[in-house]
Amino acid sequence: MKPAVFRYHAPKTVDEAVAILAEVAPHDGRILAGGQSLVPTMAFRLARPPHLVDINGVDALRRLAVKDDKLCIGACVRHAAFGRPIVDGPLGRLLSAVVRHIAHYPIRTRGTFCGSVANADPASEWCAVAVALGAEMVARSVRGTRVIAANEFFAGVMTTALQEDELLTEVRLPLLPPDTRFGFNEFSRRAGDFAIAMALAIYRLDGGKIVEPRITIGGAEPHARRIVQAEQALAGRGPAADSFAAAADVAAGAVDPMEDAQNTAEYRRDVVRAVTRRALDQSAT
Ligand SMILES: Cc1cc2nc3c(=O)[nH]c(=O)nc-3n(C[C@H](O)[C@H](O)[C@H](O)COP(=O)(O)OP(=O)(O)OC[C@H]3O[C@@H](n4cnc5c(N)ncnc54)[C@H](O)[C@@H]3O)c2cc1C
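Above: the input record for the complex with flavin-adenine dinucleotide. Below: its predicted structure, written as tokens.
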């Protein structure tokens, strides 16, 4: 099928983009970023936005820079930008380790970091990263700019705190201390598919004991979430097989997994246990 008829807008500045969005958003006008989620749904006529506001011509949104110890990722920065570490230290390595799990290479060359965050698919790797790191989302509209914390941003399956007339101009990720350890693992039936579940484990060691553990699970629930009980199970213990297995069990018990035609809740819970254990094992290598 082909998309339903729509009017195409090509702003050159952020001011112009949000001014157009203010006019067309009440009529289901949408931002077009990489198009890797929106265009397929339009082609199947699952979405029929009468207006598209294409932000790809807005140079200011291509910014990818470190400011005040934060990596600022503009709305037009593609997934592929993270294929090699974009900054020195653990954050750059973490983003490179995660990006290769997103879709297939051609999709990564068009799809954007901010588009994934705005789209809020439960199995989006970047949403899990944003939750794990406590990202800041910068939203702009004709009414002004506001910064939304990650723990207030994701509201459910493909639902966020963004208003219909707000453009997510930038996501800011804090740089990580040099001694940060991390591991990421996900399971999907075919390479490139959305994951059934994923786990991102981040912590530091102090005197050989785990401090500041963060365990984030994506894909299993309506949106990615830090699992506090699993973090508590890890804190103060050594990075060893028994503590990793215990934390993985706790994570599996703490999630409330979604069900779909292929995956029961119990199966997804088992996958959460496996990916958490693998992410933690990877963190210690
Ligand atoms: C076969 C296939 C496999 C995929 N597998 C994965 C996967 O494993 N993991 C994964 O995370 N993704 C996957 N994707 C999705 C892909 O990563 C998309 O690139 C991403 O979800 C959306 O980014 P985009 O820039 O393409 O957004 P678009 O498709 O352009 O937009 C998506 C939605 O977000 C809105 N939007 C986009 N940018 C903004 C913004 N800056 N401010 C406000 N609203 C905005 C749009 O209006 C639209 O509603 C897959 C896609 C395909 C086709």
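Notes for the reader.
The mean pLDDT is 97.
The CA atoms of residues 252 and 272 lie 5 Å apart.
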